Amino acid sequence: MAKNVIRKNDDMNLDEVYRQLRTNIEFSQMDETLRSINVLSTNPNEGKSSVSLNLAKIFADKYQKVLLIDCDLRNPSLNKFLRVSNSKGLTNLLTHYQKGDLIQEQDELKIIDFGNNTQLYFLSTGSKVPNPTEVISSRRFSTFINEAKKQFDAVIVDCPPVFAVADGIPISHVVDGTLFVLSAKDTDKYDAREAVQDLQRNGANLIGVVMTKVPGFRSKHYYGYGYGKYGGYGDSND
Ligand SMILES: Nc1ncnc2c1ncn2[C@@H]1O[C@H](COP(=O)(O)OP(=O)(O)OP(=O)(O)O)[C@@H](O)[C@H]1O
Ligand SMILES: [Mg+2]
After folding, report:
1. In this structure, which CATH number among 3.30.70.250, 3.40.30.10, 3.40.50.300, 3.40.47.10 belongs to the domain 2-233?
2. Rounded Cα–Cα distance for residues 111 and 7 (Å)
3. Residue 57: CB within 6 Å of ligand 1?
4. pTM, to two decimals
5. 25-29, 35-39, 73-77, 89-93: the lowest-pLDDT one
6. pLDDT class for 222, splitting at 50, 70, 90?
C-alpha cells in the first residue's frame, strides 16, 4: 500500500503538487480570502524558502500580481535561488515607505519573469540591519504588509525558523495564514510540536503543513534561475 503511494508521488509533476497546494489554500477558509501567507518551520534547512518560491510561482501562474518577500533578514536566500541582486530590498524600502505608496513603483521591487506570461514580484531582504526583529515587529512593516495585501492578489512571505529567532511570530500576526513546513528527513516531531504550539499560543492562524524531503519523491524542488529583470547575483548581500 505504502509502496503504491510512493510510486504515485514519484510520477507526480511538482507543478501538480503545488497546484493542489494552491487549491487547498484557496479553499481553506471559505468565508475569508487568504491573500497573504507566511512560510515557517522549526529549524533551518527544512525547505521553507523552496516552498515559498514554488508556491509564489504557482500563484503567479494563476494571478497577475503576486508578491514574494524574503523576510529571513539574517539569512537571505531567495535572491540566490532567483539569482538577483540583494543590494536593495525590504529593509531599504521600509526606511521610506508610507501608507498608500504604490509598491509596484518602489525601486526595491524586482520583477521575475518566468515566461508564459508568468511574472512574480520579488522583494529581497535588502541591506543588513543590526536589529532584524525590531524591523519585523515595527509598525512600518505591518503597514507595508497590509498595503501589500490590498495591492497584490497574493503575498507569500519566507521566514526564518521558529527555533532560531522570534521573527516568525510578528510576521504571522500580520499575514492571513501560516503554512508550516516539516522535513521528513530532518524535523524532530517533538520539536515541531513545540514550535507549532508556540505559534498557536501566539495567535498564528495555522492553515496547513507541507512535508518536504519525503523519501521516494525525487524532483527538482525549486524554480528559477537568472530570470531577474535587474542585475546579478554577484552583489548580493548575504
Ligand atoms: N522538497 C525537498 N526535497 C528535497 N530537498 C529539498 C526540498 N526542499 C528543499 N530541499 C533542499 O534543502 C535545503 C534547504 O532548503 P531551503 O533553503 O528551502 O530551506 P530553508 O528551510 O529555507 O532553510 P533556512 O532555514 O536555512 O532558510 C536545500 O539544499 C534544498 O535544495
Ligand atoms: Mg530559507
Report:
1. 3.40.50.300
2. 37
3. no
4. 0.89
5. 25-29
6. very low
